[in-house]
Write a structure and sequence with these properties.
This protein is mainly β and 451 residues long. 1% of the residues lie in helices and 53% in strands.
């Protein structure tokens, strides 16, 4: 028997001698294929997944009971294959059925007697050499007449994937070959290569690739220091591993001269204000957008020297919402640096804040004297409130359906009275509700807009 390996919705059975009499049914959710039709990374719950199955062997004996083999594509690469004891509907292919063997090989269908024992919804392709047909021909046992193709001296059982790393003038790069062996035995692969302009020295390398395994080869090249933007060199390589006429292939190496971006400047912090008191336990840190920045590094620590770092993370925006409670009544220190492909800028100035806690102002006394005037109002109204200690204030306005129509992120407000103007010029008349929130404390009220 061979080794059965599932690779996504592909399966390979590789062996020198294969005697197959099993089943290959379609799979269900959680096994192999991603359903791209819904533009998501979810596997369709009830969709059948049909495997494309490849047999690589010197000799193959194949049999199947009714409905035993239900696949997408079925391919035989071998020297000799014998089909026997295949029941009606024993083999069903949603796609092609390919029986390919080397020049001098054979395919024996003489034991097939059941009608429509092998069917394909696409093409049936059989090497047209040394065929022993079923008694009565192919028509009774195949659902369609097969296409007969010329035999080949060998087939491509080594798959190569190439990748080029390195593209700057005067820099050394590498061409990587990932070589996959889908043959039933180990294979010696020789890569012969050269380049037109000498970026890669001519040479060759030989690797032994084990059956159903892969290996890599890295070939260095150097782009000259005086190369100009988009200068190229043609890299030519040939894979030799048993094919009678190895195919010559080419890769174009292109020089790209790219200037690294300037390192971003120092970040300016925004909120919470430096030395703010009574900051909520899940604050939002914000800073001013910095030119040339691709992302920001943020550190929050319990000491000014940042030896006791509580949070170290990155953000692609100019804010970071801390989504777990900080310790109560604790002074925290934070700073931010901006980064891009050219490197990281200096850390910002270090700011501090004290979190709310037992020694802070009584939360129930923090927000008082909330009032709205005028109310009712025809276009604008003023929301006034008083703080007994500095606090981070957010104000939300909702309509009668509970839909938020306006939001004011006021930031940290000092002790004392404050006011915010709401302009309703673009909203219809009706009942609205306001909420002033700081931490877990909030005040809400009704407002009436008239026309």
């Amino acid at each position: 028997m061979g080794t059965l390996s599932g690779i996504w919705n592909y399966a390979y059975l590789v062996s020198e001698d294969t005697n197959f009499s099993g089943t290959i049914p379609p799979a269900k959710k959680g096994t192999s294929r991603i359903d791209d039709s819904k533009n998501s990374n979810q596997i369709a719950a009830e969709e059948d997944i049909y495997y494309d199955v490849y047999f690589h062997a010197k000799t193959i004996t194949f049999s199947a009971d009714m409905d035993a083999v239900d696949v997408g594509r079925l391919t035989f690469n071998c020297e000799h294959v014998v089909f026997e004891n295949i029941a009606t509907d024993g083999v069903k292919c949603k796609n092609e059925l390919v029986i390919q063997y080397k020049d001098g090989g054979s395919a024996d269908f003489s034991a097939l007697t059941n009608p429509n024992s092998i069917s394909s919804e696409s093409v049936i392709s059989i090497t047209n050499s040394n065929i022993i047909e079923p008694t009565g021909g192919f028509t009774p046992v195949f659902n369609k007449e097969p296409q007969l193709v010329d035999p080949v001296e060998g087939w491509k059982y080594i798959t190569e994937i190439t990748q080029v790393n390195g593209s700057e003038a005067g820099r050394t790069g590498e061409i990587f070959f990932s070589l996959f062996n889908m043959y039933y035995s180990d294979v010696d692969v020789t890569i012969e290569y050269q380049s037109e302009n000498g970026w890669a020295a001519a040479g060759s390398v030989t690797k032994t690739i084990k059956s159903l395994d892969f290996d890599t080869v890295a070939i260095p090249f150097t782009i000259p220091g005086d190369a100009q933007e988009l200068d190229t060199d043609k890299f030519t390589y040939t894979l030799n591993y048993g094919l009678p006429n190895p195919v010559e292939q080419k890769i174009t190496l292109t020089c790209r001269i790219e200037k690294a971006p300037d390192v971003p400047g120092m970040v300016s912090l925004d909120s919470p204000a430096d030395e703010a008191e009574n900051v909520v336990l899940q604050p939002e840190l914000s800073w001013v957008e910095t030119a040339e920045a691709d992302y920001y590094m943020i550190e929050l620590a319990a000491d000014v020297d940042f030896n006791d770092v509580v949070i170290r993370t990155i953000s692609n925006t100019t804010s970071l919402l801390i989504d777990s409670d900080l310790s109560e009544n604790t002074v925290y220190y934070w700073h931010v640096s901006a980064s891009n492909g050219g490197g990281s800028g200096d850390w910002s100035a270090t700011w501090s804040f004290r979190s709310e806690g037992q020694n802070s102002v009584d939360p129930m006394q923090l927000l008082t004297n909330t009032k709205l005037y005028p109310n009712p109002f025809s276009e604008t109204t003023t929301l006034e409130y008083t703080l007994s200690a500095p606090a981070y204030i957010r104000i939300n306005i909702h309509n009668a359906l509970g839909i938020r129509i306006a939001a004011f992120d006021e930031g940290v407000k000092d002790t004392g009275s404050h006011s915010t103007v709401f302009n309703a010029a673009n909203h219809p008349a009706g009942i609205y509700y306001y909420t002033i929130q700081t931490g877990d404390v909030s005040e809400s009220g009704k407002m009436m807009l008239v026309r």
